[in-house]
Amino acid sequence: MASTAGDNPHAWGLVLREIWRRTRQRIRVGPLYRWRFSGRTPERVLIAPPDLRPADPHIAEEIYSGRFLLGGHVVETGGQSPFSLDIASYPWNEALHSFKWLRHMRAAGTDLASANARALLRDWIMTHGSHVGGLAWQPGVTATRIIAWLQHSTVVLQGCELPFYRAFMRSLAMQLRYLRTLAPDMPDGEDRLRARIALALATLSLPQSASSMRHAARNLALELEHQILADGGHISRSPLSVLDLLADLLPLRQTYANQGETPPDALLHAVERMLPMLRFFRHADGNLARFNGVGARSEEHTSELQSRSVIS
To answer: Which of 72, 150, 209, 232 is most buried (most C-beta within 10 Å)?
Structure first.
């Protein structure tokens, strides 16, 4: 006869730990903790980390025209801000608030693309920047957005006026404090590791104390040792997770080098193990083996798989 949770003390322990984790997370984003998200604002971005994902200037043109192809779903904004629309597609909204599409603005390399990126980022700050909650502030989405804002800060800030620069830095600092508060209570998995990557990247890209840098590096190392297995695979056993995480870990490793800082040994060892594993998962046509969450993907994901800068 199959046992139930009531017959299994270990199962009950897991359930209670998960309930307590979620309770702590709700408390930490509640009114009593909101004061922790405010504080000193960094004066500037010291360095923009590289983004190894391929970019397409034609997508920047589509975005400028109000056509957003994100998460396998196309939305025509009709001149409205995409952040004010009520779109039912969760993947589309997740991709929108993650801001990974900023790389296409960088690829366009024009003043118009920079101005459009700046206008869209200003819209996000006005509509979501001070209202913590919902999909836009899910920790995994926030971590991805922080990485994208840092990587493409030069594009967003190019030619901007001082009030926007201050608003950008203020919002970025708030998101970092929020993510730092929630990271310990995030569920085990890729999003928690990405949060640690984002926080480590921020200590290199923004003026930070040496102790903050060491603390972020230590937390990152612990998470890498837990999530990246001896064979280079991720604990999820998803080939796509290996690819996506490498696309964040390699820029982090490069940023340590660019800043003349020594990266954690765990970061170097994880990358060394993950690269052969990714090549193992990759077919001759550039696609990944289809199991554990890897299936038919959008053109954006397919082009990521072809990126030699990530997998060579």
So the answer is: 150
Distances (CA, A) of 307 to 136, 214, 250: 28, 31, 13
Crossing angle of helices 265-281 and 239-258, rounded to 10°: 140
Both tokens of 241, joined, read 């997770």
pLDDT digits (tens, 9 = 90+) for 79-124: 999 999 999 999 999 999 999 999 999 999 999 999 999 999 999 9
Give residue-wise pLDDT tens across range 268-307.
Answer: 999 999 999 888 777 555 566 655 555 544 334 434 434 4
Name, in order, each residue with C-beta under 8 angstroms of 41's C-beta and a sequence gap of 6 or more.
Answer: 166, 169, 170, 173
The rounded distance, in Å, linking the Cα atoms of 96 and 81 is: 11
| Reported pTM | 0.84
Token couple for 131: 């209202």
Q: Which residues contact 100 (CB under 8 A, 6 or more apart)?
A: 53, 144, 148
**Would residue 260 be called left, alpha or beta, if left means φ above 0 and alpha means ψ between -120 and 50 degrees?**
left
156 alpha-carbon distance from chain centroid? 17
- Its sign, for the CA torsion 195, 168, 53, 271, is negative
Single-letter residue type at 229: L
Q: Which residues contact 117 (CB under 8 A, 6 or more apart)?
A: 102, 105, 152, 155, 156
